[in-house]
Amino acid sequence: MKALTEKGNEILDNVIVKENDGVKEGVDQETVDAVREVGGKYKYGWATDIEMEYAPKGLTPDIVRLISEKNEEPQWMTDWRLEAYERWLTKTEPDWAMVDYPEIDFQDQYYYARPKSMAVKPKSLDDVDPKLLETYKKLGIPLKEQAILAGVEGAEELTDAPRKVAVDAVFDSVSVGTTFQAELRKAGVIFCSISEAIREHPELVRKYLGSVVPVSDNFYATLNSAVFSDGSFVYVPPGVRCPMELSTYFRINAENTGQFERTLIIADKGSYVSYLEGCTAPQRDESQLHAAVVEIIIEEDAEVKYSTVQNWYPGDENGKGGIYNFVTKRADCRGDRAKVMWTQVETGSAVTWKYPSCILRGDDSQGEFYSIAIANNMQQADTGTKMIHLGKRTKSRIVSKGISAGKAQNTYRGLVTMHPKAKESRNYTQCDSLLIGDKCGAHTVPYIEVKNNSSRVEHEATTSKVDEDQMFYCRSRGMDEEEAVALVVNGFCKDVLQALPMEFAMEAQALVAISLEGSVG
Amino acid sequence: MAAPAPKENPTEAMLASRQIPAAKGWSTAAREDAVARLRRMGLPDRRDEYWKFTRPDSLIQPDAPRAAVLANDEPPLFDQVDRLKIVFVDGVFDAQASDDLSLEGLSIERLAVSDSDLHWARDIYGVLETRGQTPVDRPLAALNTACATDGVLIHVTGTPSKPVSLIYRHMSETSDAILHHCIKLDAGAELTVLENGPAAARFNKVMEVDVADGASFHHIRAQGRDHERRAATHLFARLGSASHFKSFTMTVNGVLTRNEAVIELTGDDASAHIAGACVGDGEFHHDDTVFITHDAVNCESRQVFKKVLRNGATGVFQGKILVKAGAQKTDGYQISQSLLLDGDSQFLAKPELEIYADDVACSHGSTSGAIDEEALFYLRARGVPKGEATDMLTLSFLAEAVEEIASDTLKEEINARLESWLNRRRS
After folding, report:
1. Which domain holds residue B44?
2. Which residue of A has its CA nearest to B308?
3. How many DSSP H helices and E strands does chain B contain?
4. Is residue B400 part of a domain?
């Protein structure tokens, strides 16, 4: 193993993206190509040269009003934001996470930036600035519906059409467009940008916005409540199984601009929806702020799957630049037998502060959290979940895999609480950390509160390095060291990778290896 | 005594209510430093993260809350063990009841009467406590260093023939005792320390143990059964290379107990085991807070804490393994488990790992739940009455912690005490 740490930088990178095609038997060319596709250094680091419109720097009530006005919001929404702004002024930034970054000057940020061409809302995707469409195409996000249909006209009507994914694309502060809206509408599903929802479905937004993450929940959520500019809105009516996966793709492009998106998902009784979220940002020397809020409401017998592949620009090897990712995500299982599943692959961001949580209010409701967090170079990640058991016979499961390499710090922080009335509930938590190199750190900070005796709580955590026995096993079967490491690391993450929807699993698997690039040595 | 300080500053109020012992040569500077340290950090309050699960109020108010003295009908613990007895009654040394303090292989002095200027204890008293103040403040330990009225200073040079037994009697309903012990084990030396008794209505105790290379220290403690007593104890230990440290604590009853253990492995190949078994009923709040720092290569640490709770009792466990950069080949293990015998009791835990070295194997586990119904059914199906069956399962649950005691005689004695506690409460 000594040799492993002394080995050069390119180990994992070579395994996954073999240039000389030392492809093993059983691995088809397509897989190799697909993996190579996502290979290389941070490949989304380019910026789109597009004319932007900014609100002045800094945060004042006028900026809040301006954002509200730009989104053509009703008065109640403006008031809601202003109240949040007032609350924000009284709040202090949390400092309990194991992350360390220079103080953020909240007045030295742009809180609103949109491409000039979006000043007049395009009526359909055909009217969208080609530069924007190009951006998403380059990111591999198909916004043109026909692109998804692979040129087959009318494929939408075919029963054996390829799996479709409806996409809402958010570029800096605005939503560029949402695909497949018509087809979704047919099923009764509302999928649009949150700004559109505020205008078109105020009754739903008013009822649910801020009901899971209250305005003054925490410093960043309060800030978000005041200045969120766009995001996605999903409503799935009772008994409807959403006919396709929904996806939002967030892109930060403008410099010195914070992105504050707000996502609201409502799964009404007996409905089902699977939601995917992806994010990237250009490579810049200045750090940028991203403070999102995601609220999910799950009614009786409904189920929501929320998957994230977070790949914001992580900064360079010396910790220069990168996104500060301060995110509040929470799901509220309001009805009995409601079910939510968070799956996250966190590979990007210079600093991550993120704890997707589940409030298990309904009896027999279930929450699951699967996470892979990879921190390399100078990245810092403090992430985990909260499982709040309130209803009877509620179940939760946490599987967290943290990988630290380079000089990174990776922390799992979580809470499991069993309230006195949450009789016969169950939690199982497994947190594993893997350390690659002796300059990084891996930490586990779980809080466990059990207030009744008919519930069972089990927590397990381990920290280790790449297992020597496993390495030996692989090596003795003819694999070289690099291949063996990749195999072991992927095996380490297997439980979580398997929980991802098909669309993401492939990308995530490759990301796992690429994020660790240069870490062995 | 100074005038009472304004109510809004509990630290000043507490200091004003204490009689800081008059200058005693070598310890003067240490006490002055401790006062400054305490003023800097202030006494804990409910908002402190480190006191998240335990309310410190009754530990920081100037006067000790009243605690009735229990009429104990059990024979004194460790009575069958050949030992050197040192007795404190409500924190005051009782020469009459204590043995002669001389024993081959060690020297024992009392803190209150050791006033030579160049005392070995200068390098330990308040020194290990200060080391233990980073990264988390432990203000009650600083208060102890500043205000301790007595304690023992034990210097072990060889292998004494019998253990040193510290006996803490509780006679006064309002006693507020502060004792501070320093133990220094020279290279290769060995010592077993036994502690038992409720000590006082409120007891603040610090024990600092310096274990030199190749030495071993074994500690077995039983905190008294008095229902209303309160205790805040700190055990600070520094371990040299290839040294061994073992500590076991049994707690039955007591309205509030906070036991902190701060152990630093500074020499290679050292091992530290710390365990606790507690059983509590009703007004019972028991907090084990452990902080183990690995700062050397190839060390092993093990934490085993078991709590049995009933009738609204609360068990707290905060345990941390910190592995510093360079502390390779560390083997760190931690388990905290609670058995909740009814619906009112609660278990609050924060088992933490903070690791900066890659070649390590560290793990922690924490579980909480009720008695295993299937196991209970198995026993009852074989004719064991329910109460007895529950006790059997409870004892087997506690066994992993009790197993940490090396001596079989002591293990049996502790087990017997746990069994009789369960017996008294059998429904």
Report:
1. 30-371
2. A453
3. 8, 20
4. no
